[in-house]
Amino acid sequence: MKSLKYIWLTAIVLLSAGFASCDKDDEYFDDKYQGRKIVIEKVFLEDVESSVPDREVTFARLGQMIRLEGHGFMGMKKVYINGYETYFNRAYVSDNSMLVTLNTKTPITNADENVRNTIRLVKDRTETIYEFEIRAAFPTITSVSNTLPGAGQKVTVYGSSLHETYLVTLPGGIEVTDNIENDPDGEWYSFVMPSGVSQAGCITSDGANGKAQSPDFFNNRNCMILDFDGNGVHGFWGSSNKDENDNIKPGVSMIYDTDLVDDPLGTGYGKVCQLIPQRLLNEGGISSAKPRATEVWTTGNKHETEDWTRMTPFIPATTPLTEVALQFEVYVPNPWSLTGQIVITLVNNISFSGYNGDERNSNTFFYIPWLVTDNEGNPASIPFFTEGWTTVTVPLSEFNNYKAILEDKEAVAPTFQDVITLRNDASNQQFGMGFVNSDIEVTYTNDKGKEAVAKFPSALSTQEIYIDNWRIVPYKFVTISDYPEDEETEE
Known about the structure:
By secondary structure, the protein is mostly beta strands. It is 9% helix and 32% strand.
């Protein structure tokens, strides 16, 4: 099948060469063409990735290339799609065929009714209008507010072209049709999690622009690392951290089982981790310039749960790291800004020095949700909080060591097996997170094109941050084709 695609791609190139030959003596602009009748007989979708690369169609989507078949195309001056003037290259025009790519800015729902779903071709002394359905780009899902919700919780699905979603199908074929809220711009929809969803998988939704599908990360507990309720093993150590009465000494960074708290929202998560334990908040909080302020770990010690080979029945070892992610839930009830960061590490081999420390090149990821880029492209602090439990998704390809490898175009792209091997070879196998309150400096290019540094000096932190449900999930995105045969496995 791939060979057929390459043959078709070659044919397109040769076809364009044939079109271009018409322009050698500027014949394209010969006046004789300007009054010649324009007739569109058929429309074809051009897609070299498809099993049918030149497919006759009755509709097309924004961003797609179409081929008009008929006669009278030579000398074409203007093309309008839904009333929107659309660029075309006359090198791809012959008298019987022409190629046009539907501009992504073409109006759909807000197009004037008189021109909606039309292709208008214009020459100096003639024109034609052809009725043809124009759809928005494929609907896509980019993120989900909470991928591990309890029954009755509101779930918001984000993406594009999600207009007028009327059906949401959850793992196990459970359908939701009631109380679906829609964003008029198609950037999100929401639904209430029903009871009885026991399987893991994807969210599929049907709307005005077709079907959209999330990765298979919804309700997915298959590869749980630690949920603080018996799935995975919480580790803590350090005999010097406690006094003779077994009380944790002031300022100790290690988070013990006694530091865990009940789900503050009562949503069914059981025990959760308060990342700055209440005992440290009672002591006045985390001082400025404080590395390794807190830390929470799995058990390590070559425990069977630490060998992530156990996850390969659900995520094959050969899976690219761009298609595997860490997920966890976070609840931040009060605005968090200006200071503090969460350092996540795949193994216990760092000192928790923070964003500007040596571990920036290690197997770490820095979660700093208040640190964003403003409209001018400058680093900025925007207060971050959540209205409830919110899912954080970190592709494993974003961990600093693997991100560096992927930036090297000559390097072999890492797979899930590389993470498994890294952890199994580590002398301290624990997976963990920690709160660090050190200064942050971000290097960026300013509006004058020069390198600059944005500084965020640390300050006292009394932030409430709750964490739960560390897990590894599939993270492969899928676009559902309008033509089911294109979704079949290619040979």
